[in-house]
């Protein structure tokens, strides 16, 4: 991975992200969620606004062991219409509380924002976006969205998508019975890919990016994922839909989570600084970030 530049912010106004992460409401979520370890590495010029998803939901597999209810999701179902409805909710939110300099997403939040960005670029590229950069953590874009935008999705990609969704649920559920210090994210019998292997752009887990003429997301992006995450392929696919000259990727070595080790926290904090640097126009800008 390319070295991450560190931009001093001592003489700037606060940087603010909005976070879309579909776990639980404030203030407990903000205090104990899995971003706290790397946010602690950032100086006081960074500010985060944590956003609750709109729909009550049952917890995803394994979540109830770490976070008490209530639980929320950004959209119900997997078809394009559900996502487009969520985009309307998102626009209302950003009109009310934005604009932000960046958005930080985890899991389903990545699907919401990546699809929002793709439709914006395809349908209303002349309109300004309400944020400048995106940090995607352990998430991809729904294949139904890229198909709707004219990208050919192979049968192989659809099969892998369905299989890895099922594997994620199984692996996340394993935390309930795992022995202490057991790595429940890895099951050798399930692994169908090598996260250290080079990526062939003509076959990124069933998607041929040599046939896509231009990136579907053109703003600076950061892509953080775990090589042991069953949904690793979806994260890699999403990164390839983004402008290569303005993206950074990082495999934290874990699963569908954010390890709290010092090395991982330091690296992610550096990537957040890089994204803030990329959002800066060079003027004395008020930076704002939202975390979903």
Query: Number of helical segments?
Result: 8
Alpha carbon gap, first and last residue: 25 Å
Find the structural class using helix and strand composition.
Answer: alpha/beta
Shape: globular
What percent of residues are in strands?
Answer: 5-15%
Summarize the biggest pleated sheet: 7 strands, parallel
Radius of gyration: 18 Å
What is the succession of H and E elements? EHHEEEHEHEHHEHEHE
Weakly predicted, low-confidence segments:
1-14, 21-32, 281-287
* Count of individual beta strands: 9
Would you tell me the overall average pLDDT?
Answer: 82
In helices, the fraction of residues equals 25-40%
Main features:
alpha/beta, disordered N terminus, 8 helices, 7-stranded parallel sheet, 292 residues, two-stranded antiparallel ribbon, globular, 33% helix, 14% strand
Write structural notes for this entry.
- By secondary structure, the chain is α/β, with parallel strands linked by helices.
- The protein has 8 helices and 9 strands.
- The strands form 2 sheets. Strands 1, 2, 5, 6, 7, 8 and 9 form a 7-stranded parallel sheet that branches. Strands 3-4 form a two-stranded antiparallel ribbon.
- Strand 5 (102-106), helix 4 (108-123) and strand 6 (133-137) form a beta-alpha-beta unit.
- The longest helix is centred in the middle third of the chain and has 19 residues, at 155-173.
- The chain is globular and about 55 Å long.
- The two termini are 25 Å apart.
- The model is unreliable at 1-14, 21-32 and 281-287 (pLDDT under 50).
